[in-house]
Amino acid sequence: MLTLAGFDTGRIRNKKVLLKDFVSGTLEETDMLVETSSVKLKLPEDSNGVLVKNIYLSCDPYMRGRMSKPLFRSYIDSFQPGSLMSGFGVSKVIDSRHDNFREGDLVWGIIGWEEYSVISSPESLFKIEHTDLPLSYYTGILGMPGLTAYAGFYEICAPKKGEKVFVSSASGAVGQLVGQFAKLMGCYVVGSAGSRDKVDLLKSKFGFDDAFNYKTEFYLNGTLKRYFPEGIDIYFDNVGGKMLDAALRNMKTHGRIAVCGMISQYNREEPEGLNHLMNLVTKQVRMEGFLVNDHYHLYPKFLEMMIPLIREGKIVYVEDIIEGIQYAPSALAGLFHGINVGKQVVKVQRTKLYDSYAYEYESLYT
Amino acid sequence: MLTLAGFDTGRIRNKKVLLKDFVSGTLEETDMLVETSSVKLKLPEDSNGVLVKNIYLSCDPYMRGRMSKPLFRSYIDSFQPGSLMSGFGVSKVIDSRHDNFREGDLVWGIIGWEEYSVISSPESLFKIEHTDLPLSYYTGILGMPGLTAYAGFYEICAPKKGEKVFVSSASGAVGQLVGQFAKLMGCYVVGSAGSRDKVDLLKSKFGFDDAFNYKTEFYLNGTLKRYFPEGIDIYFDNVGGKMLDAALRNMKTHGRIAVCGMISQYNREEPEGLNHLMNLVTKQVRMEGFLVNDHYHLYPKFLEMMIPLIREGKIVYVEDIIEGIQYAPSALAGLFHGINVGKQVVKVQRTKLYDSYAYEYESLYT
Fold first, then answer.
1. Domains of chain B with CATH codes
2. Nearest CA in chain A to B237
């Protein structure tokens, strides 16, 4: 198979993002390293995998857990010091020795943080069928964060029309969708975010009924009482820590808390203490942690709902796209400082070199 | 209606337990007061209630919440300083002006902490049909704590055969039943308690697979790892605090925590901090607080299961019965020091004066 005329045996540049060393405390850009190596643009004869060119990399808070010493590891293995990082991304198949994939297929799933990846078990990749929507959406609204919001809200929160919903980190990759799902369901929804701009976005773009900047609030228990004088039916928690503790104090009887993540805790050596768990009993609250991993069987149903909603403009999505894989370390670290507005994506190549809607091989030669 | 020949218009002694003042910190016997007043043994013509003679009073940890200032109040109203306390108990109807009750009926439900109570809304009382079992059982295994264990275990924990179950405060009113339910279900069950005697009881009498004295363990995370090397599927939490935090670290994927109570916290001015909530996410754990109030519709089904199990000796129950209402304050305070072994009950009158199986009026005249 000739992938590129004249380049069948050639090697090409492959920039990679490596973890420098295990991270403790706040993640910084300098905890990662961008290195240039090369890759052969053809799979060996005995491969059963695919070779992909990576188009978008997804920056997700859960990745922080993979950067700590395994002692404190997350639900998945840690990255190794000096080794390639990986994460969700969107890619194009440029060589395939697997029956399910052909050259030219667009896919999303776990890929290396590099320009080209060899995926030895491509069964885990999703083929992208709807290519009229921005391909970057498959790192967000149509990818893992989208399904996370969907499963977390509809399955874990079990929402009912008219219920009062609170979402933290509400302008993030997951939060902005949860708020819009809540509105579609006929709920009252308030979001918290970390800047005035984000708060404006929540109200003007995503249709939240109200929103506040948690950084300018000094007593979150009182803040939540102000926005939810009758209490919270559903809290979709992306942050943990003090906000979760305050939400616990403001839950209504039979309230539900979906714990999606605890970004406020990921950079701490010792997690913050929560003092108001007794509210679980007195208010008969269900608090449930979940991972999207359990819910991939819902992906077809999820897409069926989402594609028309996006096409009709009934659900919108804000992305924060940085261009050039060399900026991936700063984009990932930025998540923990609230730098991103909306879903943080890294476009592997600079825009001028190709257009993601009509992807060309030009960039391969740069 | 002549309740007692010659006493139809007379008044009789009525010892009562009053809350002295709102309690902060550890509950002490001296926070309550026993006072003697009198009661008329006949209801007024215009009453729609019942007059009961109280046989057993139930000492339950939740009562501590009713003894604090309303600012920190529990899910039910606080008692008032200088006023009568109330709680679950077993009583005999000695006068009734309500269609559902007749003189001589045995009932259980919320009564005053006194020798005689006028119940103005007796609809909330349960009539006792099975009188061949100890009447005191209706404060425990066949009353509120029994139904709590039943609903908490079968409904909230959703147990499956072979699962690994941990129960704290395992020799208490609720815990001893949860352990036995778990064994009936074919689970592996370990309990924690606060003395060597209680630990022995768990293993020898209630059939727990293993048990430990939490007071002699200095690192509960390690303790739980020892008893559950593969993790905990179900934690039935009666204590909260450090034990809950350690259990969170030892849960298996898709584990469930039923939060029934947090006795370790009730006497604290500030609740203890929990640091390991992130395990809810990484292990996809459901943690649910519940109150028995939601589950009274299950009571007939519960009785149907329990009565034959008790009669056949397949479920046993240990009670700690103190005699004389004057000891009720020390019995209640004792709960928070782990003085009781099994369900703490107060028999209102001393034994010699009557026999609960063949209750007589003699004691009325003493």
1. 11-139+318-365 (3.90.180.10), 144-293 (3.40.50.720)
2. A281
